[in-house]
Amino acid sequence: MTDATLPLYHLLHELDAHFDQLVATIERAAALYEFNPPPTWRFHHDVSEPIWLRDALLDMWHQQGQDGRETRNYIAVIAANDDLLAACHQINHAKANISDLLARIKQSHPNALSDAKSRLPNRHPHIDDILRKSGFARLHLKQCWRQLPIAPAPVSRVRLAWYSSGRSIKRVSVQEAEQKLLQLDSDAPHIRIQLRKLASIPSGEILAQVQTQAPLMRANLFFVEPLADGHTRRALNIAMPLIVPANEGRLPHLKAPAETPPTTRTRAKRRDEKLEDDVYLPSLRIYRYR
């Protein structure tokens, strides 16, 4: 039986079970951390209250008015023993199960996704109470399934730095751009001007829609020994605590990032960048290729 023919309640019951499993794995990892706090570094915070990790791991909810594209970040490095490492891997496994299932629900019962996100707090009364007191609303998908970054081997040093890739580029057709403009206020003068500009170019031309991206925190890991593939270092974008194997019971050497992200992009301009300098359809952030 495919997901499309499965009753919705069956998939929601499966989601309940996966979410229960995720909360259980988080509780286990948090308890291990709090019982014997390991060496930890946190960005902009001290580590005197070990409950911070539980709060970070359970932060999977929209705040009222929060943009769905925004996530709350918890930048830290934890030198974990074997038990805590295993518990963190179990969290990632549970998160992956939820991500896969939500994708299945979205594909087979797209109208049920909102209900799926709002029903989960009721599974855990203490979580529901936290949400009401904190002004949280419903499940934040990205914060729910985002993985914990876990180093695959002992690390000698970690270099943290802000990274700004600047923007993402999505190719769109003239017809797609027209539909996007028509979904706005087509009677507004500035929209009419852009529709006329769009009509003046070949219908087969491919355009570029540009999305500015927020700065990311990047961790460059330098391993004690080369990995099986011969690599001695790895770069990871981190929004959650970076978990590294405890090497001699201490943190690796850390190079902390700047206090604030850069105001300009840190990534060098691609030499093959072919977009015009001026935006062609400002309301959609759409550019023409040179």
TrEMBL record:
Task: Identify the domain of life.
Answer: Bacteria
Q: What ranges does the record list as Low complexity composition bias?
A: 255-265
Q: Which GO terms describe its biological process?
A: DNA replication termination
Where do the segments described as Disordered lie? 252-274
Entry GO MF terms: DNA binding
Instruction: Give Gene Ontology CC terms.
Output: cytoplasm
Record-given protein name: DNA replication terminus site-binding protein
